[in-house]
Write a structure and sequence with these properties.
By secondary structure, this protein is α+β, with helices and mostly antiparallel strands. 49% of the residues lie in helices and 17% in strands. The chain folds into two domains: 1-32, no CATH class; 34-119, NADH Oxidase (3-Layer(aba) Sandwich). Strands 1-3-2 form a three-stranded antiparallel β-sheet, with helices on both faces.
Length: 137
């Protein structure tokens, strides 16, 4: 993953120092996590449709299911006193992850979760006002 991440950052034209900083941080996060959980999408048991519109909708539905499972995973970890971080980097290198982990080709990597005991509780980030991101009628 780091090799492909570095290649993408080089293509973006980032300075060498910035590329090294980002790839080192990424590698450190992955290798220092006590537990790493990978969620994958498998379309083999989903409905098949002859048209693109419904096929895309079925794929989006499967993606939403994976995302929902990810949120439940984080909530369950929290209930057990654990912290978790959700990253979507597998979306950028699915074939690499499939090959390295020997996953079936129909398992499409979607998200990684780093889970462990929290060293420090991070500051709460500023959130957008509800009125700026919703419509009530």
């Amino acid at each position: 993953m780091a090799i492909e991440f570095q290649r993408d950052l080089e293509t973006d034209g980032l300075p060498h120092e910035e590329i090294q900083k980002r790839t080192s941080r990424s590698r450190e996060r992955i290798t220092s996590a006590p537990v790493l959980i990978l969620l994958s999408l498998d379309m083999s048991e989903m409905d098949a449709y002859p048209d693109k519109k419904r096929s895309r909708a079925e794929f989006r539905m499967a993606m939403q299911s994976v995302a929902s499972a990810g949120m439940q995973l984080l909530l369950a970890a929290h209930a057990e006193g654990l912290g978790g971080v959700w990253v979507c980097s597998p979306l950028f290198v699915p074939e690499t992850i499939q090959n390295v982990l020997g996953l079936p080709k129909n398992w499409e990597p979607q998200a990684m979760f780093f889970v462990g005991y929290v060293e420090a509780i991070p500051d709460v980030r500023e959130r957008k006002m509800l009125a700026h991101i919703s419509v009530f009628k």
